[in-house]
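Hey L., structure's done. Input below.
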Amino acid sequence: MSTPLYKDAQAAIEDRVEDLLNQMTLEEKLAQLQCLWSIDFVRESVFDTEHTAELLRNGIGQITRIGAATSLHPHESVKFLNAIQRVAVEQTRLGIPVILHEESVGGLCQRDATVFPQGIALASTWDPELVKNIAGAIREQMLSIGARHTLAPVLDVARDPRWGRVEESYGEDPVLIGTMGVAYVQGLQTEDLRNGIATTGKHFLGYAMSEGGRNWAPVQLGLRELYDIYAEPFAAVIRDANIATIMNSYASVDGLPCAGSYAILTELLRDKLGFDGPVVADYSSVELLKTHHNVASTLGEAASLALQAGLDMELPATVCYGEPLRAEIEQGRVPLSVIDTSVRRVLKLKFQLGIFEHPYGNEEAVEHVFETPEQRALAREAVAKSTIVLTNDGILPLKANIKRLALIGPGADDERLLQGDYHYPSHAEITYLAPEKIKSEGELLMPTPTVASGNGSYFPGPYFTPHVTPLAGLRSALGNDVEISYAKGCEVLGTDRSGFAAAEQAASAADVAVVVVAGKSGLLRPVTVGEGNDATNLDLTGVQQELISAIAKTGTPLVVVVLSGRVHTLAQIAEQANALIQLFPAGEEGGNGLADILTGKVNPAGRLPVTLPRSVGQIPIYLGMRAGGDCAMFFDDYIDSPTTPLFPFGHGLSYTTFAYSNLGVQASNTTQPIEIAIEVRNSGERAGEEVVQLYGKDVVGSVARPIKSLLGFKRIALAAGESRTVTFTVHPSRLAFHDARMRFVTEPGDFTFSIGASSSDIRAEQTIQLSGEIAFYQQKEVVATRVTIA
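Output:
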């Protein structure tokens, strides 16, 4: 008996796909568009082979999360997956392997996996190479356990800080998000998916700009804004990193639910942006076409709408793409050709991943790629690089003559507060901490696996890797030379002030007081931020602001660290503190990384990937507002506030200074690359890193253009007195936009190029004229800005 063509590893992938597709029954095809929770294969705390064989009788497209849905250690996780995979490969007619997907926004969401900083913290490094290295570490861990698909990165342009998922994103600017996203995808996928992990760009599209900042709420955006801004990070990872999969948004855009919109998932994503891989459903979003958006009256209609819009795989479980979809096919409402198109995409991905040849995780290697010294060192580096010094009157770095330090606040010694909402174990709380608390009309809003408490080792729990809190980090960094007195002061939430007295006493007796206030990220309340946990008030929660005020009144020099995934309003604190630091959810090495900054072991260079408003009433406020958006007529301000932000996009201080000089711009026309060069010198007395930021402005456009747009950036290290020349090469397609006729064009005329240390700290700028005719481009062909250092 000859080997089927689809099992020939030397054959072309397209030929293998067609050969396999031609042999599949309708049931087997539908199964490839479906998904099952990993825990569905467990009965009475044991993997059930016979039950699994029945569930997989026609195969299955994907398996939903082992890591975030169980408490299995990696060596147990890979054995569990391999057992499932063995049934799929050896006990089904065609032997099509399954794909296991996991989450990895800030590290693999799996017990014992390295907990790197959350997505917003990674963006704060402005260091794509670091992000790529972190993604590489995640890749090693995922490969070892056999998981070949991750539901990351988050590419939402997050311009409303009330939205709870800002912490998962890379911030508010499409160029920064796209650059970080490309680095993340490259680190995980590699140039050959057989050696990598299929990544998922999410959430397509406009998800973060919902009405009221509410999760799943409708989005009202014009097409020009949707294409130029919100689609751009996705365009970047498609054209520059060949991202494998895309996930839809839960929201509707101008009345079109993304999960069921042909205009969004096909005309925009595939036709305009050039994506050709599978689109996977955000959890339960197909059935939400019926239950939330009310655009389908039955689950079958929802399935039909989603599939024909271009949504290929239903996650996390099969609700609509099973019998409801089959009924639609039988009644002639869904053509078989549509089914075949989606199945082709799924099969192609499986062949690209090489799982037909290598379906199993490496049970021998798994113990050697989790929590290695190198991974922990990388996590610590990421924390230090992401820490943003917002203000500093010279108190930092902490002086050598300090003998007594008071460490105060709820975030000072609580490993749980170092977690983001998609870190394990905070994410697993939705399973092990009474998910029945989350209700909407008697139904659970959040899709979670049904896991009884008797499921033994499969049942998730509060299992942490070794975490270093700020208290532990400072004790290690300062040793016996400095006496550290710790007082919690208060909780993140609540009105208990009973700890104030001890905190004030500790501060009064100290040379310096460091107060670590915090948020609590998660999905299951009570938390302050995270998916589904949106807010109308951006102040610190509970009585934390009162705690800071009480410590400030002692007169002891005060350093405030804000450890939170929320973008907070910090105007009062900025006035009270001698130094103010933003530390987004930092993960397992948070305390060490923070101590590296406070003590001066590492010179800070973290920069804001978002704008910090003075008050919630300023929202939306962000880099890239269109002409006229940065002021209020007639008086250029509000009656109770300036229109400027408290801290602008790109802001962050160093312990040294940098001087910019000799700006040079070489430009010709709308088709030739533009070169912008600047000399940057470390004019201080200590080595440090600077994030050199290039901004551009189209002085006169045929439509209202952004006041200022980020075009490129580079984080560079300079010794004291050292200078380097940074050259940005900007292709004119990077300046393109959708004009009044929705053509993607670069128009001739005047352009101002600005270089500086933040979007408001501009050190040099020059206006030049681009000659020539209107140049017509396509968004899927935009050339990323190239940066060289000499």
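Residues 438-444, 451-455 have pLDDT under 50 and may be disordered. The longest helix spans residues 128-145.

-- N.
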